[in-house]
Amino acid sequence: MRDGTRVSSESGAGSDNHVLRALLDEAGMSNAALARAVVAAGAEERVYVGTNTTSVTRMLCGSQPRWPVPRLVAKVLSRQLHREISISECGFTDRAPVAGDRHDGLNCSGTLDGTVRTVVELAGRDRDRPGFLLGSAFTAAAFSEPALYAITVPPAESTARAAGKRIGTADVEIIVEHIAHLRRLDHRYGSGRVREQVVQVLHREANTVMHGSYSESTGKALLDAVAQASWLAASMAADVGRHSLAQRYYIQTLNLAMGAGNRLYAANVLSHMSRFTVQLGLAAVAEHERLCHARQGVALARAGQSVANGKATPVLSSLLHAVEARGHALSGDTTATRTAVLKAERHYERARIDEEPAWLAFYAEAELAADLGRCLRDVGDPDQGASLIKQALDTYEPWRVRSRCFVQADLALAHLASRDLEQAASVGRDAVRMARQVSSNRVLDRLRMLQRRVRPLSSTSPDARELDDRITDLTRTRTHRDEDTAT
């Protein structure tokens, strides 16, 4: 409390707090030293608490301190150990007020340190709370502020730091290779099986940014690596259906890229924010909601072009125009869609793959063909759309199982639009078989979209009826598996 009023800092008791004892031992702090540091940390914030040696003893015996003592304990131990320690890691229940939460993930902090702290807190809560943000909804408009901030952000701050353990180029390279490995596993098995590992890596390496020592050049490379981990966390959260959580990770990834001064990677992040918004718009029931997502998707793609400031590589330019085309297609604007498709194709024709950034390697010709095929299919050219989507399917590497599922479902939808029900059912069955190999809500959503188009035909077509039954069986099996995992 303020004005010098002392607050009793304990209530209730439970089992011994072994994790807090281990942290104190690691930090080399006695009970009295922790008590003094907590009181001092509170005073810095003009918050006065009555924590003393006895209070700490009670905490170690399992007592839950009153707010804000748990937060102050975590703050003190973070400083002492040169890494971010969360409230739950101290063995306390995190009862941080939701209102006014500096780390809610939807805001732009305005400083690099603030952004990194937000990432640490966001990943920590995601790691420690199984139901974190499950009750929150994705809001397309929440992307507007960070996109505008990226366009108008001042020059990047210095990234050099002298805080703790020395970080060198080799350390950063290890992080980048680890992220690339996890990304490949994600493509092969789906995010449901590897997401927890990515969140742990993000939390650990964002802590490295906060509590390490490194030069300016190493700092930029380290921030780039952490931004890639944050992007992967966003993509995986979206893949398992945690849309509100994914939105927060995307926003902070954009903030990290701008903080590192990497405008091209920031433009890439905006392209993914656009794609994510459009994908959710495809599932919208209300027309006005679909159009809102379409407009926002176009705006985000164009924001990416502005952030790149005329320096986008050919592949990045192609990607930005392709996702813009997806937004136009969602809104039903055929002319704008075809214009953006043509621009995407022309930019890709100038590409020299060996001169593109490593983080853009995923956007190979197959990805472009799939994007453009979906656009043309959705604006009334299903035959040309099917041709491009089939080209993508034929050229995907075998390990990209989830991507193959996506394009198989998209190809089946294109065949349906061309009224080739037999071929649609055949490709759809292939998609269902492959979907059993991956843990991905996005794959299931794509198959449900196919099912909505097939079901009205099932009364007159055995092929349609069989495909409808197969998708139902897959989704029922996956739902039961997820329920068993949750319990």
From TrEMBL:
InterPro entries: TPR-like_helical_dom_sf. It comes from the Bacteria. This is Transcriptional regulator. Gene3D superfamilies: Tetratricopeptide repeat domain.
